[in-house]
Amino acid sequence: MEINIQTGNEHKKIGQYLLENKEKFIHFWEEQIIVHHHKDNKELIIQNGYLMYEVVVNSILHEFSEQEIKSLAYKVAQERADANVNIGEFVYNINLGRSIIIKYVNLSGITAEELHPVFELINKQFDLFCYYAVSRYTEIINTKLQEKSLFITQTHKDRLAILGQMSSSFVHEFRNPLTSVMGFIKLLNHDYPNLPYLDVISKELEELKFRITQFLHTSKMDTLVESKYEEITIHLLIEEVIDFLYPSIVDRNIRVIPNINEEIKVNGDCNELKQVFLNLLMNAIDAVTDEENVREIKIDTILENHLVKIRISNNGPTINPEAIPYLFEPFFTTKKLGTGIGLFVCKNIVEKYLGQITCISNDHVTTFQITLPIKNN
Ligand SMILES: Nc1ncnc2c1ncn2[C@@H]1O[C@H](COP(=O)(O)OP(=O)(O)OP(=O)(O)O)[C@@H](O)[C@H]1O
Ligand SMILES: [Mg+2]
Predict the structure, then answer these.
(1) Distance CA 15, CA 59 (A)
(2) Which homologous superfamily is 223-373 in?
(3) For residues 1 and 69, what is the distance between their CA atoms, to the nearest angstrom?
(4) Cα 68–72–73 angle (5° rounding)?
(5) What residue spans define the domains of the chain?
(6) SS3 of residue 257 by DSSP
(7) For 33, 106, 111, 364, which has the most beta carbons within 10 A of its beta carbon?
(8) How far is residue 165 from each of residues 21, 94, 168, 170, 220, measured CA to CA in Å?
(9) Per-residue pLDDT averaged across 78-101, rounded?
(10) In the predicted model, is pLDDT for residue 310 greater than 60?
(11) Mean pLDDT (whole number) for 160-176
């Protein structure tokens, strides 16, 4: 950036005047600057004030140096960013310095004609200083943000990879014996219908199967299990899930109100879709459990062109709007014993069937909506 400097007599006069009144002007400035006592280092701000004053006087008396302004601006920007303070106050303080200099130089008795070119120089310096400091500050903050988000993404990926590896071996080791135990329990039940505790054992094993399947869906599910594509009647599937959850529904005194179109069929793997509804209903059950008034879960279906919208709503507490974008991310949980993979699994499965899952939550109701293509007859 080029600047035309005339180092005439007026420059000397004003430079000299500024040198003589340095302490006074900086003292005026110091009394008016904005300082955050808990964050800012006032000494440092004042030290920088002196440095800037020197740069200004130097350029009036001797030589204008853009490099000098730039270095000081970069130094201040780094300090502001390290202290994690807003750049607004800094811009205010620097402009305050400019006003004080201009105001008192105006009162110096030097003629307006003589002052004019020097004012231009002073303004130019302050403008450049602000420009360099704010640009640098923004750069530093942006880099910091990028590094942070890179770190989060990386840790996230690492955790997912570990979970994937764990799940694969875990699922292999547990699923096959579990399936055969469940088969033998069925046989026992058939051969000895009056044998006690079989129902309890079956129920517990079903729970275990749900958890194991959940892990299965966080790993490379397509390679581990082949999804069957069969015709699924939504209302039958949801009824099955409600039956399965019936003990917790009764235990927690929850009213479940299904309003499901009995005609609706979709194409998919029954176990996978069951996993989706289990997760959504279990979450809804958890959500209404703290509700002191009536605890209600509604299930509705809406047909729209070739799509079905399945809505699972509950009257539990509102989900914090800031949490909504993270609900479907793995490991996001607000529960003491939650793993935070339920909704992640739901999203994976629903998207596999070219569907969508969304959530809306307000003071009255929280709704999770799944949209799936319907099976045409
Ligand atoms: N119906 C709902 N009402 C309120 N908050 C909900 C509801 N469903 C999900 N959430 C919020 O979303 C978070 C994530 O749900 P998600 O099912 O993924 O995990 P989780 O239920 O915490 O654990 P798990 O892996 O055992 O399912 C929950 O911890 C809860 O904060
Ligand atoms: Mg859950």
Answers:
(1) 9
(2) Histidine kinase-like ATPase, C-terminal domain (3.30.565.10)
(3) 12
(4) 115
(5) 2-148, 160-217, 223-373
(6) strand
(7) 33
(8) 72, 56, 5, 8, 9
(9) 86
(10) yes
(11) 75
Mapped onto helix, strand or coil, the DSSP state of residue 331 is coil
Which atom of ligand 1 sits closest to the CA of residue 345? Answer: 18
| C-alpha span between 168 and 189 (Å, rounded) | 31
Q: Which atom of ligand 1 is the closest one to the Cα of 328?
A: 18
Q: Please name the residues in contact with 373: beta carbons below 8 A apart, sequence gap of 6 or more.
A: 266, 267, 306, 307, 353, 354, 355
CA separation for the pair 198, 13 (Å, rounded): 103
Do 223-373 and 2-148 fall under one CATH topology? no
What are the pLDDT digits (tens) for 216-237? 787 655 454 567 789 999 999 9
Determine which helix (DSSP H) or strand (DSSP E) holds 231, and give its type and residue range: strand 230-233
Whose structure tokens read 């069957």?
A: 228
CA–CA dist 17, 69 (Å, integer): 21
- Residues recorded for the chain: 377
Residue 234: name the closest of 303, 315, 288, 314 by CA: 303
According to CATH, the topology of domain 2-148 is Globin-like (1.10.490)
Output the ligand 1 site: residues, CB below 6 A: 279, 283-284, 287, 314, 316, 319, 327, 332-335, 338-344, 366
Distance 282 CA to ligand 1 centre (A): 9
User: What is the best residue among 212, 248, 256, 283 to mutate for testing ligand 1's pocket, by most ligand atoms within 8 Å of CB?
Assistant: 283
Compute the distance between CA of residue 177 and CA of residue 174 in angstroms, rounded to an integer.
Answer: 6
- Token pair, residue 356, equals 């969508």
- The DSSP secondary-structure symbol of 374 reads P
